[in-house]
Amino acid sequence: AALADRGLAAPPVDSRFARDRLDDLAYYVLRDFVGGGILTVPIRDPHLEDVEANRVGERVKVVPRASVLSGAAGGTGGAGGFDGDDEAAPETGTRVPTNLAFESETTFVDVVTGIAARDGTELNASTPSAKVNLELDGVPQTIRCAVALPVISEGGPHVSIRKQRADALTPVDLIDRGTLSVELVTLLWLLYEHRGVV
Description:
By secondary structure, the protein is an alpha+beta fold. Helices cover 35% and strands 18% of the residues.
């Protein structure tokens, strides 16, 4: 306290708030140095299937999973956060803008190169874009990312993240949902078994 009085150190933090400030500090350190910067939470959110950041200053866009939207459409106020009265739930596949945005190109480039580095890919002037797969601790699905540096990406860096389902759909699931007919699945199965020669 004596050093703080002379302006030589930061004043001590009131013990009532110290724990909260340590939690905040831990969050930002993990987010910025271990995670993917401002994309850390959307990347790890199991209710999102796509995350896209196109340029500096533009809001990051996400695509919620269909299961989140179907729960929201019923007006239950589910995970999608749409209560059905004052705001409509977006349609399946619709990109929803978030409140996240990269404020500087340097930060954006750092996040893009960090994502690529996790899969062992180095982005530079000779290799300005890449498609990488991420496997993160605590995230059951594989995350596919397309990343690009400003060298080839008009308007600055670009990252597009596609998260596969942890429980992949089987041909039977696709038939049950009416997505594919039994005949088409049978044909695809034959093609697969005979290596495309039928």
